[in-house]
Amino acid sequence: MNSYLGSCLCGTAKFEVQGEFESFYLCHCRHCQKDTGSAHAANLFSQSAKLTWLAGSDSVTTFTLAGTRHSKSFCRCCGSALPCTHMPGLLVVPAGCLDTEVSIKPTAHLFTASKAIWDKELEALPEFEGPPK
């Protein structure tokens, strides 16, 4: 059984996920764009993995957009996205909050009809290992 560690940006909330992720979706819906401030959300999904809060569980809050299934859990101190268990039997883990690397590759892009107009041919852009000089 795999074990993954994760945390928020400020380190207040720390967690462990034991088990496997069944899917890894890049969601381009407008809700996820607003949530992340970026082109898409990158979330891992599991119906069987177990989430254990190692620290800071009292700093985790969840926002659910009225009239939708869209929810986001985050740290009250720094705002970082954190695992969400709002749907019974489903664990949703933002890929960027994991401190342990995952070997699963993204399964699919979702809601591509809402894809940001600037989210095209990004692999052609220059790359820097740090800030541009």
Describe the structure.
With 133 residues, the protein is mostly beta strands. It is built from one helix and ten strands; from the N terminus they run βββαβββββββ. The chain is 5% helix and 35% strand. Strands 9-4-3-10 form a four-stranded mixed β-sheet. The protein has a three-stranded antiparallel β-sheet with strand order 1-2-5, with no helix packed on it. A three-stranded antiparallel β-sheet has the order 6-7-8, with no helix packed on it. It is globular and about 40 Å long. The N and C termini lie far apart (43 Å).
Q: What is the H/E string?
A: EEEHEEEEEEE
* Rounded radius of gyration (Å): 15 Å
CATH topology: Metal Binding Protein, Guanine Nucleotide Exchange Factor, Chain A
Strand tally, please? Answer: 10
Main beta-sheet annotation: 4 strands, mixed
Q: Classify the oligomer.
A: single chain
Give the amount of beta strand, in percent: 25-35%
Number of helices: 1
How far apart the termini lie comes to 43 Å
- Please state the second-level CATH architecture: Beta Complex
Give the structural class.
Answer: mainly beta
Helix content: under 10%
Low-confidence stretches: none
Overall outline: globular
